[in-house]
Write a structure and sequence with these properties.
The structure is a homodimer.
Chain A lengths: L7 H23 L2 H8 L3 H8 L2 H22 L7 H18 L1 H12 L3 H5 L10 H14 L9 H17 L1 H8 L6 H19 L14
Chain A binds a DNA duplex through helix 3.
Chain lengths: 219, 219
DNA sequence: GCTGTATTTGACTAACTGGTCAATTAGGTG
DNA sequence: CACCTAATTGACCAGTTAGTCAAATACAGC
């Protein structure tokens, strides 16, 4: 039987993969360095050799996660002529990305709980602009040109809006269930929620507005 | 100097108060029983005397938090004739409640990370209907009657929608800042965001819709 | 094949963690 | 005042935790 010969790259990746799983499952404080080492079938010293400390490892996990997510966003292109359809695809893509990568929500929640303490220490993550915002801007532009969207909609605000609704639905499903008595985990309810987010976004973007709604301020 | 004579009620409350602060600041796994005892200036045994275990204490904290929040929601009544104005008040109330009680977000996030493990064990919290939903229903009804809102809007869906946006804005402000490079903590940006949520809600509820937006399904 | 360097490991530790025990103290009640 | 019960405490423990040390091992270049 071939003893696993040394292979720094593979080892590093394996640690990163298992650490992501552990940190996502148990959050920063709940995660155990020994447990990660056991998952990797490596001695704990390897983690310290490559990442210095538990915090260093967590930062590397965050960076890796952000890069993966960003790449996925960049690879997505809302094609097709219809801006309304493109906007729906955009929302669906965001929702699906979060469903496909539950570790993203877990890691971000853990990080926000610590007031972004680790992200602040990472130079690679700071001011990492989400490429999806550019796609939104483009779709909005086309929609305005075609007369289906109203002008002067901020793409960042719109992005935060629908990603909030997608994220929160998944992230807080357990306490929402406890408070409202509704199971948000079923496929059908998810589909309905995705449609609802799109509906809200499109109602907000629609051009055929007149009276009092958007742009107005209350006292 | 008067040695603190025994007072079970006050002691219980003090433990609950300090435990809430500790669990909110450090989440369930990060919180330390010894630290809570130290905050209370009580021997650790008191926590075990009154709440049995760290988990029992956390459950009590969750229950207490829910009751407080629910009471606040119930006390709120969106008065006034104008349903549009009332809806804005409703959104503002929700946003402000989360700003006033940051521990709510911290505790709920911690609990969702554990897939609602503790909330499931609490009989007092299960299926605790949020009273604000009733207020929303009533405002929607009035709006439909006055012809400013369209009919058949689900109050629960609407509640989850705007509370998502309010909650997420506060909860994820640190990672949003890291990813988008925008400080979401300033008073002005908060005001703008509150207005934006209201705008979206009202655009969604508005009666004067015709063509394709709400209710439509994509493939 | 020799040697230097990077990879990998087993054994260890000092501090901490949730939880327990037996003992002490204060208040209400007869 | 004596007695019972509930509140409160100091001392302690077994298991765990992030992090360390020195040694061993494999690979690359000569």
């Amino acid at each position: 039987m071939r003893r696993k010969s040394r292979n720094p790259e593979r080892t590093r990746e394996k640690i990163l993969r298992e650490a992501t799983a552990e940190f996502a499952a148990r959050s920063y404080d709940g995660a155990r360095v020994d447990s990660i080492a056991r998952r990797c079938r490596l001695s704990k010293n390897m983690l310290y050799h490559y990442f210095g400390s538990k915090e260093g490892l967590f930062i590397a996990v965050l960076e890796h996660m952000y890069e993966m997510f960003r790449k996925r966003q960049r690879d997505f292109a809302a094609r097709g002529g219809d801006p309304v359809k493109a906007m729906r695809q955009l929302v669906a893509h965001t929702f699906q990305a979060l469903l496909d990568h539950p570790e993203v929500i877990a890691l971000l929640n853990s990080e926000n709980l610590h007031h972004g303490r680790h992200i602040k220490r990472s130079r690679r993550v700071r001011n990492l602009y989400d490429p999806l915002v550019d796609t939104i801007r483009e779709v909005l532009r086309r929609g305005v040109a075609e007369g289906v969207f109203r002008p002067n909609i901020d793409p960042v605000t719109l992005y935060v809006s629908f990603s909030s609704m997608a994220y929160h639905y998944i992230s807080n499903q357990y306490t929402l269930r406890a408070i409202l008595g509704v199971d948000f985990g079923t496929a059908e309810r998810r589909r309905a929620w995705l449609n609802h987010i799109s509906d809200m976004v499109l109602a907000y973007c629609a051009a055929d507005r007149a009276a009092e709604a958007p742009g107005q301020r209350s006292a």
